[in-house]
Structures
1.
Amino acid sequence: MARMEPIPLEQMTPAQKEMYDNIMSGPRGRIAGPMIPWFRSPELGDLSQKVGAFLRFSSCLPDRITEFTILLVSRRWTAQIEWWAHHPLALKAGLDPAIADAIEARERPHFVNRDEEVVYDLAMELMDNHRVSDGTYQAALDELGEQGLVELIGVLGYYNYVAMVLNCFEILPDGELPLKP
């Protein structure tokens, strides 16, 4: 059970109702995951969910790359519900299941697509070293362009934030957990 329960609609403050309306009228159309604790700070929550909606539904990055990046982050944090929600989306977006399996096993995947390899290298280097070498930066810039690189860093940062919220508030999927610790 999560450490925080959803707030019933009839008990929401006006700011919480505004956040609720924004989520329900947006591309997600449902309350899930980190949104439950975010309702306790509706201004932060609404801004956060809008950033997430942009990164998932309006970014210049292909869905395959966005979902791949989310899997990298969710595995890094062992964010169970994040993996549970995004693993099928990554496969549907065209990510090779063998790549998802390697990420789950914490192994470097074998890459066929250059963009996936470049994203993997940048994401892992940044999460491991807290910076990126000139060579990795240039490879990512060449592959993704300036806007794509900025939005990739947005996906990495946002989903690290989401994973922290999910793990802190113990928001888990029902049933068996998909990731081994």
2.
Amino acid sequence: MTRVLVVHHDVDLSDQEVDALRRRGYDARQCMGPIGARCPVLSGHTCELAAGADVLVYDAFMTGEPEGAQRLIEGMRELHPDVPIVLVANSLEPDWMETAGAHRVTPLVGYPTGDRLAAAIEAAIKIAGPAPTDPA
């Protein structure tokens, strides 16, 4: 079962996304990001919740300011480079969004219905490639 961490500043929208993903068979959990608590990523530390996920679904405006969201995504990519990120932007795609390179994300622009979220998650996982195997 694919483990998904939904990071969204709006608890009602986060609940809807998590419920939609669970109905589609994902092990979905949620976090309010830096709005709801101190964010280890913004302090340069790894995030245990993110490290335990197979894919992350982030609200593009989770910090309430474009620069904060950009810093958070860049920090996530640097601290957790192998965890795919779906970046949800309900209306406008942020101009800082990168779909290739070190700070890459899989964009989901528009309303994130359950089917659209699932499709974006599967695309992000496919782009990231297979997880490294443990040589043990």
3.
Amino acid sequence: MSKQTFIYTGRENLEVMTEAVKYNQNLIHNIMTCIKSKSAKVLDFGAGSGTYADLLVEQGIKPDCLEPDKNLQKILKSKGYNVLSDIGKANPGSYDIVYALNVLEHIKNDHEMIENLAKLLKKNGRLLIYVPAFDVLFSSMDKKVEHYRRYRKQSLVRNVEASGLQIVTAQYCDPIGFFAALAYKIAGNKKGTLSHKMIRSYDRLIFPASKSMEVVFKNTFGKNVLVVAKKR
């Protein structure tokens, strides 16, 4: 998320993930649990083409969108969003909620970025981070979209706490997805692409069951890590 020209390399997979209706609605639910008022000021950090921003608008919340890719910025602006090209364009202490969904893994210095995101929050504001988990699952897909890492819950919590925020929630998500991602690493294609059919099938048939199992496995493993933190 530097001021240099940025082109996102995973737009094909970004488009495929719009098929994951239940998965995306679950992420929106997580964001909405942090929002206390429809007047809350919200920032979508790494907004892409607006997948999550669009879903929030359906809930009566129109976030600002931070997106460095110029082509994606044009899409966001065509939808009427207030678009920021760089985190330096955002005013410190101005947001009630900042969320970053599958974004931090693309950033080399994620610790510095978490500190910068924390500075954008108002007092008692919330930072919601959702990232891929476990380096053992690092596959051709991660390489294609230029992930620097996958996360463990403990390491992400330490980074967030080091920014001065107080942890509200920290857990692994999508435990069945762990095994699906492992299968993809072993048998998936070397190009790192995702198929529409595969994503639709997992989303409709498997993800609901995986979500219901999180209460058992949230402290041990899952395909993703969710952290919500508060500015004191």
